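Sample entry copied in:
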Amino acid sequence: MQLKLALAFAVLFACFDIVCAEEAEVRLDRFFKDYLEELFRQQPLQATRLGDHRFDHLLDDLSLNARLGWTAFAGRTLKELPKQVDSTKLSRAGQIDFEIFKHDLETTLWLAENTHPFEEDPRVYGDYINDSIFLLLTQSTRPKETKRGELPRPHGADSARSGVGAGEPAESTSPDPGNGHPTKPRGD
């Protein structure tokens, strides 16, 4: 009888641990999704990079105040994470997710304090310019015609296009890289 009672308590405690772990997993999942939603609102290009195309029509605010806001948000999130999610109640997989998230936030804060790419590395702006167009073309799941229609058109593009292909092509005086002789237009 005592063996059956002990077995019943063991099963009950095991079920309780499973329920607690599932509740903690749900809390971590909700916390992370809320974090991503705010991150994507603040940095829409990051959303596009990660495959969320709801923000494709927006550009990041790269002003100093906005970047300070990104850092403050990461700091608040790191501070709130252990308050919102008890990592000891998570499954092992959940604890790993928790640690990865925590370390990513710590890395974000360290990089913000110790590196200054927006002030010291002009390539960061080239990345923003390039990715804001390139990612729309390569990652979008919309039909090709729709993707092209979303791109901003430079002023005067239509008038420049109307002059292309008019009349006969002129003879080129640039050398052919293969033999060094001037090239002549083909009669297609």
In short: Residues 2-124 form one domain.
